[in-house]
């Protein structure tokens, strides 16, 4: 099989139908030479809107219902992206966490991933169809929807990279990689071209928000490279994270 890569797109990357169309072009280009697994976040601002709705009736809503509600943002963006790809002649199919058996603990809003049905994802790829999978969410053994907490979509993508034996994990966001300092504060800050897993993890722990620290663990064990890319400037080389 042609090599597999995982592409994860954050909320700003899929923040409007125009941005989703641009993301579809990025995926279409990559699909010319690779098999793709796509993971998406909710459209920018959507999760915050859903959280606000959930707290309208109770400042501390029922945890099960809260996760059932806030997980719908990713479902919307995955279906829209599948439609965008289909409009360009690319076979694509959206999947929720329950459809690919992303099993988690029942710790609502901070669930831990236990297992995933990689065979279903791989069979979709073998059918020359791009799976568009919801990030941030999972499902308990009893069938209840859970969410993974901050950085959950990045972590989901890393799990798919691990189980799919991907050649690389691409994190597409709204910046051109990891910087030497916060570019909004330090004008001389520059993009780091290449950094180790452990250095990236350390920078993340000390405030670099480009990548969620637990994302690195699943790919570290298999030495799968991570590339941080800018959806708005796709030709930028970004930051490569390796051993």
Class by alpha and beta content: alpha/beta
Model regions low in confidence, pLDDT < 50 over at least 5 residues: none
End-to-end C-alpha gap: 25 Å
Largest beta sheet, briefly?
A: 8 strands, mixed
Strand order in space, largest sheet: 3-6-2-1-9-11-12-10
Rg, alpha carbons = 17 Å
SSE topology string:
EHEHHHEEEHEEEHEEHHEE
Assembly classification? single chain
Q: Strand-residue fraction?
A: 15-25%
Q: How many helices?
A: 8
Mean of all residue-level pLDDT scores? 93
Helix percentage? 25-40%
Q: How would the global form be characterised?
A: globular
Number of E strands: 12
Q: Any overview of this molecule?
A:
The protein has 243 residues and is an alpha/beta fold. The protein is 35% helix and 21% strand. It contains eight helices and twelve strands. The protein has helices at 17-30, 46-54, 63-70, 72-87, 118-126, 152-163, 197-205, 216-222, and strands at 4-9, 35-40, 92-95, 103-104, 113-115, 130-134, 137-139, 145-147, 168-173, 194-196, 226-230, 239-242. The strands form three sheets. Strands 3-6-2-1-9-11-12-10 form an eight-stranded mixed sheet, with helices on both faces. Helix 1 (17-30) packs across helix 4. It is globular and about 45 Å long. The mean pLDDT is 93.
Short descriptors:
single chain; alpha/beta; two-stranded antiparallel sheet
Summarize it.
35% of the residues lie in helices and 21% in strands.
Blueprint (SSEs and pairs):
Layout: E1 4-9, H1 17-30, E2 35-40, H2 46-54, H3 63-70, H4 72-87, E3 92-95, E4 103-104, E5 113-115, H5 118-126, E6 130-134, E7 137-139, E8 145-147, H6 152-163, E9 168-173, E10 194-196, H7 197-205, H8 216-222, E11 226-230, E12 239-242
Parallel strand pairs: 1-2, 1-9, 2-6, 3-6, 9-11, 10-12
Antiparallel strand pairs: 4-5, 7-8, 11-12
Helix pairs in contact: 1-4, 6-8
């Amino acid at each position: 099989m042609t090599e597999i890569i995982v592409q994860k797109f954050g909320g700003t990357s899929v923040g409007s139908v125009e941005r989703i169309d641009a993301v579809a072009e990025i995926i279409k280009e990559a699909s010319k030479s690779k098999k793709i697994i796509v993971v998406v976040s909710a459209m920018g601002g959507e999760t915050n809107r859903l959280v606000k709705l959930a707290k309208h009736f109770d400042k501390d809503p029922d945890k099960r219902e809260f996760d059932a509600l806030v997980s719908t943002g990713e479902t919307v963006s995955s279906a829209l992206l599948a439609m965008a790809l289909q409009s360009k002649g690319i076979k694509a199919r959206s999947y929720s966490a329950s459809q690919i058996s992303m099993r988690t603990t029942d710790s609502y809003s901070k669930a831990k991933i236990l297992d995933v049905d990689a065979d279903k994802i791989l069979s979709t790829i073998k059918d020359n169809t791009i799976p568009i999978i919801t990030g941030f969410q999972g499902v308990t053994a009893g069938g209840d929807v859970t969410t993974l907490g901050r950085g959950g979509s990045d972590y989901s993508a890393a799990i798919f990279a691990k189980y799919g034996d991907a050649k690389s994990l691409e994190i597409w966001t709204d910046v051109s990689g990891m910087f030497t300092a916060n570019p909004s504060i330090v004008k001389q800050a520059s993009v780091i071209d290449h950094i180790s897993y452990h250095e990236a993890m350390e920078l993340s722990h000390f405030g670099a928000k480009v990548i969620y620290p637990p994302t690195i663990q699943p790919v570290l064990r298999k030495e799968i490279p991570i590339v941080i890319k800018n959806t708005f400037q796709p030709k930028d080389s970004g930051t490569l994270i390796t051993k």
